[in-house]
Specification:
It is built from seven helices and two strands, in the order αββαααααα. Strands 1-2 form a two-stranded antiparallel sheet. It is rod-shaped. The mean pLDDT is 80.
Length: 174
């Protein structure tokens, strides 16, 4: 009606206790209750999930590198016979861990961003909101660095174990 502002109308609706299933934030953007519920899960759930996935990835990489060391025991012994020092054997396995982590970063970021954007669009369209996905660049950079660190840390144990094997013992196992 004439003489009533939009702000006064919003205030009246908010104070009346009428539930619209939506809310607006400080910028006046209307957020359906489903979006509020999804964001209410919050950082704690995301951090917990990321932590569990990081532990699973680290253990997976550790077991993979242990299997590589066992499978390539004679090859690593041959490197030692040909003149590799224990330090060079360790660096070789650390490089392998870094390479596996780097491939995981490149493929994971590429497919993860593509899948995340697609799924968010589908979710937003079903809610009837504007599908405007965004990427947390800082979060992605931290995840990439953490992945590389996990790859290197999981390679340390197998690398030390491989460098301690005497060359003759590795050849004898053939």
């Amino acid at each position: 009606r004439e003489g009533v502002s939009a702000a006064a109308l919003q205030r009246a609706i908010r104070t009346s206790g009428v539930g619209t299933g939506s809310s607006d934030d400080a910028y006046g953007v209307i957020r359906p209750s489903e979006v509020r519920t999804a964001t209410a899960a919050g950082v704690d759930t995301q951090v917990l999930l990321c932590g569990l996935l990081a532990v699973a990835a680290g253990l997976s990489m550790l077991l993979t590198l242990v299997a590589v060391v066992r499978r390539r025991r004679s090859e690593l012994a041959l490197y030692r016979i040909l003149g590799f020092t224990p330090s060079q054997v360790r660096r070789t396995l650390l490089a392998q861990g870094a390479l596996v982590a780097s491939v995981g970063i490149v493929l994971g970021l590429t497919f993860g961003i593509a899948a995340g954007r697609t799924l968010w669009r589908l979710f937003a369209i079903r809610l009837g909101v504007v599908p405007d996905p965004s990427q947390p660049v800082l979060g992605l950079a931290v995840a990439a660095m953490a992945t590389l660190l996990i790859g290197l840390l999981s390679a340390v144990g197998p690398a030390i174990a491989a460098s301690r094997v005497p060359p003759a013992a590795g050849i004898r196992s053939e």
